[in-house]
Write a structure and sequence with these properties.
VC0802-like; Rossmann fold; Transcription Regulator spoIIAA
Amino acid sequence: MIFFACSGTNQADLVKDEVILYANAEEIRVTRGGVEFKSDLRGAYNFVMNSRVSSRLLLASYHDEGLRSADELYEATMGIPWEDYITPECTIKVTETVISCPYVDNSHFISLRVKDGIVDRIREKFDGKRPDVDTENPYFTVHVHIHKDTAIWYIDFSGEGMSRRGYKVENNLDVSMKEYLAASLVMRSDWKKSITEDKAGILLDPFGGTGTIAIEAALMASDTAPGLVGDREFAFMHLPSFDKELWESVKAEAEKRRDEARERRDIRIYASDISGKAVSIMRESAIKAGVSDLISIDEKDAFSYKEGDFGDERGFIITDPPYGVRMKSDDIGSFYEKIGDELQSAFKGWKATLFAPESELFSYIPMKPERTNTFYNGPIECQAAHYTIYTDEEREEQREKNLRKKEERLSKPLSPGSEMVYNRLLKNLSKLKGEMEKEGVTSYRIYDADMKEYNAAIDMYEGKWINLSEYKSPPEIPQEDTERRLEELVLATERATGIDIENIFVKVRSSMKGKSQYEKLASKNHFNIIHENGLNVLVNFTDYLDTGIFLDHRPIRKYIQEISGGKRFLNLFSYTATATLNAIKGGAISTVSVDASSTYLDWAIENMKINSFPTTIRNFFYKSDVMEYLANSFDRYDLIFCDPPTFSNSKSRNTFDVQRDHRKLIHRAMRLLSKSGLMIFSTNFTKFKMDEEILDEYYVKDITPETIGVDYENSPKIHKCYLIRKKVKVNIRRKW
């Protein structure tokens, strides 16, 4: 028998471990959506009984190849003996996944055709009687998986009962974490590693909510199989192949393991919440799950814990702090900063796992996570960050260790090359620092290929981080020379700025076209916050070539803030919407930001949130090709900012070349500009030349010199910037 165990994104490895442990499986194959394996009925029962992470188990029943249309899929479905599984009195449900199928435009249509095939087959076999569809609580569920011209019909073997343990108490609080997601979070934590044959470490969830994390941890520590919780019913119990005696045998084995683990282990789990209602729900849920005796539940403010509350033993925290509407606070940044302070004051020496729907929230916590994991709660991408909370002694020891390493590094004489770069950096910093402080600028460029042998751009952020972008060396330069010069750059930068080497982030720039210039370099999802023009801006030093803000546009953004009062603002190629932030700060009455990248639009919305700007009224974000947006829009704007890429391409449209296409782009944008409005056009293409037709039709002023900050005065590659206005037509009436 072939089975497929469904998993959440990035959780297939956990499901695979469960398949190996429980299913007595063969031919195990991990896919993006789960794990396929071969097993017998006992293995399948055992997996359903014990799996904590898989959301559902499917049984592959039939497959067909060479299907070329939805009608052929229908005919193939009609040929399957569904009467062996259901009668007209049963209710059914059909779900689908479709990958690279040439004849499918709407995947939902496929599930309708399969449903028709099943219904018509039953009608044919039972004198015109047919089963009804029930999408909420069906008796029988079929899942069809189509890849190209191959279809596999799966029978839902476990049903939703596998992922719904049955202990959740219905309430009108916000939706709590799903059971299998909480189990995955616990499995990724350091606490899971602490479970031994005789003891599990202290576990605390100070933001307990309805108790899902604590309950899943208690089930895990007591080796209580999820299938033992409550009086559970699974879909396979409706199948003709159901072997009640075998199922009871599997159940008895699970009960024995649970009883032995409870007797063997000292389980100490604590959960609290400031809400009395949440605590009441937590307690009732723990009772229904059969673990109320394993969890100490209190009504308590998470920030009221003190050092020593749990004795001298070092424990573990796994928690999902409130956010957004759940916390009823506009200042989420201060809230998460407070969490970090609480951890470091009350839980010294502990390990902590924090879960959040937005990885940017971890930027407020004054600790560096040792690792992170990405989860999906439905369609929402979430992050778990794992921390070690050092004691004062450990922190001091680590600080001294790092200091010794740094002193050792700094005590070594610089090479002649490093000495040259070091002296140039000192000279630049001497010139820039006072000017930047006077302007209130905290992030700026301190070096830009000042010496041809050291061809790089160095940007300093907040006096804490360095983004060092080395321009790719020509192929005739030996690799060893390139590597040596980069090392000299880094060492000189650390010594001149005083910023520790671990906060110097190095990237290599080359001439890139199309999507490659926006592709991820890593997936650490760690963001920091910088400040500009009275705004908070999220930057990422590891995952992308660019950090999320173009520092050379700082004067342009300041200008936008100064002139946007009372204006309708349009930001084209908006990137992370830093220009939009400035327009809102300056008093724009509405803003629209357009970009083709979901990643950067999501980033832009997070920038809005950390500035407490509304994202549902007055400020709108559109994922769209800019040229298409302009062609289909009829709105009017008083201020337009347009900063297109030099070159880009996409599967959904033709390539864009700023020199070739700027005439069309500007014409389309000017069509939406109000009569007295202003368009700001900027480009980083150093050889850019404004089209003569644009110069003739509009008032165009080159303001590039005014938009170059003192830190970019000597930069070899800098933007060009123009103000563009409509020409006002004056009608003169002459008297006869």
